[in-house]
């Protein structure tokens, strides 16, 4: 007797905050990667199908993406958030009670 079948797997790829097109609320949207695997004797062997779904956590709207669009989104969000480079901070002017020619910190001991 041979036991075989299909099993579904869902992986959370990314969570981002964006404006929902249906409820118009800024809510978290989750991107899921849904895969179906062929299994033989309860051991998953290979992926049969892959699809991507993004859902709104506020109203539950689901939007399906093609495999190409979903893998592009997955690559973009796998890199992590792109933080802008911090702006250089200008030096502070001397305090009103401190002379401009006096050093701000004591000389190192030694």
From TrEMBL:
Superkingdom assignment: Bacteria
InterPro entries, per database record: Zinc_ribbon_15
Zinc-ribbon domain boundaries: 18-66
Region (Disordered): 75-110
Compositional bias per record (Pro residues), positions renumbered to this chain: 83-94
Protein name: Zinc-ribbon domain-containing protein
Lineage: Bacteria, Bacillati, Actinomycetota, Actinomycetes, Micrococcales
